[in-house]
Amino acid sequence: MSEAKTGTTQELKVEKQQKRDRRYLINIIVILVITFGYTTFSLWNELPAVVNVFRGTEADYRMVVIIIVLIALKFLIEGVILFIFARLYTPTYKIHRGVANAFVGQFYSDITPSSTGGQFAQVKTFAQQGVPVAIGASIMVMHFILFQIILVLFGGLSILLNLGEFARLAPITILKLKIPVSVFSSVGFALNLITIVGLFLLSYSSRLHNFVINKGVDILAKLKIVKRPEYRKNKLYIATENFRVELRRLSSNVPASILIMVLFFLKFIVNYSVTYFVALMLNPGLYGTISFWETITKTSFLGMITGFIPIPGAAGFAEYFYEVIFSPVFAGDVAFTKAVQLVWRVSTFYINLIVGGLVTAFYRSSMEEIVDETGHVKTFEEVQSYTFAEHHETSITMYATSQLSIKEIQRRLAPKKKRRFRGKKEEGDE
Prior knowledge:
Shape: globular
Number of strands: 2
Order of helices and strands: HHHHHHHEEHHHHHHHHHHHH
Number of domains: 1
Largest sheet: 2 strands, antiparallel
Distance between the termini: 63 Å
Number of helices: 19
Helix content: over 70%
Low-confidence stretches: 365-377, 395-406
Radius of gyration: 24 Å
Strand content: under 5%
């Protein structure tokens, strides 16, 4: 009987995984079809001019090396962030595992609507790398909190320090109605701000927490806006409680939190600077004409838009809004703007997709810890719910990392041999 049940469970696991794989494949096909369609439409009358940009005698393709370094550096920084989180709880975690996990997360974020699949995939990868599911889920919640804080700060600074440029962003025409691109960027920024501020308020205000979960969801259900209100209440409760638990954990590890936020800030700069070097590659004469920081802030405005588009990879929209936003930067040169957009998109999206896919293929997990007895593969929210009790307990003990000093963080991040040497040295000094 037991063997039959085990066999059935294994079959269900395989079936569920096959369904997920098919869904991911469909998403990839959607990305490719939309991108091909937009690119064909965009280049229909501009192809000869765009080809001439690439064939120009001034083009300096040695700049490709810098672009590749920037892409690699982005993943290295993300890997270091995951490494720091994991190393605080698992002293055997290696930095190359963090980098691999960064590639896996990027791949699943790219092929899921609004980048919703990355966190769950990274929890699975952590589990395969020897990090317990509870800790993996905890890490990804803390990762989300700090990432969202820096995303809002970076976006806010980009707008405040460039209000004039932001207000002058070219409009787009929808049904004969001209809408400034700044409106779309503002909506994206507002959604990011509401997300993080809302979670903070729900975590610290019990009145607001109770009102939203009990009355707010019921009101939305009566208006037919929300289906399955009890499920939504439970999901919202788990999300806010996990946020509160991980926020407490972060507040007791201030040095580590600050270090990770600095790394996130650096990651944004590295990722958003690709346009600058692509432009210089195609036309070195632009050096001194275009501003490094302007390309970063304009890419930040673009990121605010693509972040809320519910299509995998924001396919089609990313390319279109990029051309609208950056056309004034390149003096309205349509062919040059399209050429830069093509290289930028390949560099920041399709290379990630290809390399991330290859890394993911070598990091396929058996998912034993996150598949229930019926073969149902849990979502990230279900994993959070499943591990919530352990999150709460470990937030009290803080896994012996409470109030870590900078020196203690350095000790934990150091290789084993160096830690042993330091330990012996300290004993000798005593």
